[in-house]
Amino acid sequence: MRKLLVLALVGLVAQLIDGSLGMAYGLTSSTLLLVAGVAPAAASASVHLAEIGTTLAAGFAHWRFGNVDWRVVTRIALPGAIGAFAGATVLSSISTESAAPWMAGILFTLGAYLLIRFARPLRTDRVGGRLRGRFLSPLGLVAGFVDATGGGGWGPVATPALLVSGRMEPRKVIGSVDTAEFVVAGAASIGFLIGLGTEGFLLPTVAALLIGGLIAAPLAAWLVRIVPAQLLGAAVGGVIVLTNARTLIRSAELDGPTRPAIYALLAAGWLAALVFAVRALRRTRRARAEAAGVSAGAVVPAAASAGAVVPAAAPAVAAVTSHPASAGEVSADLAATGTPTAG
Fold it and tell me: Of 3, 46, 103, 182, which sees the most CB atoms within 10 A?
C-alpha cells in the first residue's frame, strides 16, 4: 500500500508538471519508476497505459476551452502512433540490461534539453501561415518513436518544434500536442501488449499513476498561475538529468573520484541553468512592464487630446492590444505565468 501511494504521488507530480509545461509527464514518471527499480520496458508500458486516461481527460479539457487545432492533431497523431508502435516493439525486444542505459540515455538527453531550453528567454516570433504535412508527419513519427523507447518524449520533442515555428498560438500548440498524445499512448500500449504480453503491464502501478494524474489535472491549472514555467522547466530538467546520470554512470562502471566529480559538474550545470532562468524571467517581465508603460502613455494622451473620457482600464487594454508579444519575449496572455511560448 505504501508503494502504491508513492506511485500515485509520482503520477500527481508528473501531471502537475505536464499541465504546467505541456510536456514531461512521461519523462518524470519513467525516471522515477526507473529509480524505484522497475524494468525499462515495464516502466514505459505502464506509463503509456496510464497516459491513455490522463491524455483523454486533458484532451477533452483542451477541446472544451478551444485549445485544439484538429488539422494539426490529425497530421501528427497518426505518424506519432506509427512511431510509438515501432518504438514499443523495439524496446520490448531488448533485454533489461541493454534497455536500462538506452532509456536512461534518452531521458538524460531530454532532461538536458529542458535545462538548456528554459535557461534562456522563451520567445514567440509569429510569422503566420499554416504548418505543412511534410513538416508535421516526420515530427510526429520521430516524437512517437522517442516517446515509446524513452518512456517519454512526445511533449519535449513535438511541443518546442511547433512553438518555434511561430505559426500557432501557444495554447493551441499545447492543446493539440496533448490531444494527439492520446492516440500515441494507445498505439504504444498496443505495441507493448504484443511485445510483452499482459504481464508487461504493472496494473497496480498503472492504476496508481492514473489516479494521481486525474487528481492533479485540475490542480495543474492552479499551479500554472503560480509557478513560472521558466523556473519549473529548469528545475524538472535538472532532476531528470541527475537521476538518469546515476544509471549511466553505473552502466559505465565509473568508480573512485570520477563519480562524485561528474555529479558535482552536473549539479553546477543545474544551478547555472536555474540562475539563467531567473535572469531570463526578470528580463521578460521588465520588458513587458516597459512595453505596457509605453503603450499606456501613447494611448491615454491621444484620447485626452480628443476630449474623451478614458476608463481606468484603458492602459491595461491598450497594453494588451498594442503589444501582444512585447519585444518578442512572451505573449501577453501567458507572460504572467511564464508558460512557455517557444523553444
Answer: 46
- In angstroms and rounded to an integer, the radius of gyration of the C-alpha atoms of the chain is 21
How many residues does the structure list for the chain? 343
Running DSSP on this structure, what letter comes out for residue 122?
A: -
pLDDT at 340 over 60: no
CA distances from 127 to 3, 172, 267 (A): 49, 16, 38
Residue with cell 491595461: 316
Which positions ≥6 away from 233 have C-beta within 8 Å?
Answer: 21, 114, 117, 118, 277, 340
The single residue listed with the C-alpha cell 514567440 is: 124
Residue 44: phi and psi, rounded to 5, are -65, -40
How confident is the model over 94-137, as pLDDT tens digits?
876 677 788 788 888 888 888 888 888 765 455 456 788 889 99
- C-alpha grid cell, residue 78: 497518426
Cell of 18: 505536464
Asked whether the predicted pLDDT for residue 217 surpasses 70, the reply is no
21 falls in which pLDDT band (50, 70, 90)?
A: low
CB neighbourhood size of 260 (10 A): 9
Distance CA 234, CA 116 (A): 8
For residue range 261-309, what is the model confidence (pLDDT) as tens digits? 999 999 999 999 999 989 988 888 888 888 887 766 665 554 454 454 4
d(CA 23, CA 46): 18
Torsion sign across C-alpha atoms 243, 249, 250, 256: negative
